[in-house]
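User: hey, got a sec? need Integral membrane protein folded
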Amino acid sequence: MICALGSAVCYGTATVLQAVAARAASDSGSGSGDAGVDPALLLRAMRQWRYVAGLGLDGLGFVLQIVALRAVPIYAVGAALAASLAVTAVVAARVLAVRLSGTEWAAVGVVCAGLAMLGLASGKEGHEDGPAALPWALLAVAAAILLAGAVAGRLPGRARALVLGLGAGCGFGVVEVAVRLIDSFDLANPALYALLLGGGAAFLLLTSALQRGSVTTATAGMVLGETIGPALVGVGWLGDHTRSGLGWLAVSGFVVAVAGALALARFGEAPQVDTAK
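Assistant: Yep! Here you go:
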């Protein structure tokens, strides 16, 4: 859980940096940003030091996430990652002078309370492999996310941000499940390609969502996509479980943590800062 929370700190801080960088990259491009998902946006964003710093934090967060996924159930890691929005809120308040109201600080407390409940109730990770077709299903889902993102990039404003954010969350969810299915570096394992494709699609869709649409809506969709589906897969097929008699506490903690994170989703909104610095 310490690794999962460390991963949330890395991801939450990276969100603020990448949101600003993505919009600066959009302003420096020749398009309007509404023509669809633009792979070249990633190249332009990587010229921004904030985006590169965010990628570094994402890399560290991913390593911590892998360690966590090998030790605790997916649902616990997913809820901890949803708490990255609470981290984003605190970073925005401290670094970018975004003011949090008393209600919003209370939401941060709610997230922490939910995670504490999950920490008390979580058992060890499951050791089941799930159906033989699960790795192939993950690969198919990852490909579908990329295709759906190409279509969603042409949707109007709020719908665009929601679908792209949800797609990014599902891509990160594919990564979470794939990590559990990879025991060694095996080029014949479709879960390896699902991890690479799902992660790549997630970064592309999230960067596109942060570019022009409502970052509030995008982050809310991402939280839903990266928590609910992987949690169900972990419990239903991979043998994740809670401590004896504490299933109710785990469910309550999961719901409380995700609800608190969604309440804080608007702090993914990139503040207006001087991107030329």
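Quick note: The chain has one domain: 2-268. Let me know if you need anything else on Integral membrane protein.
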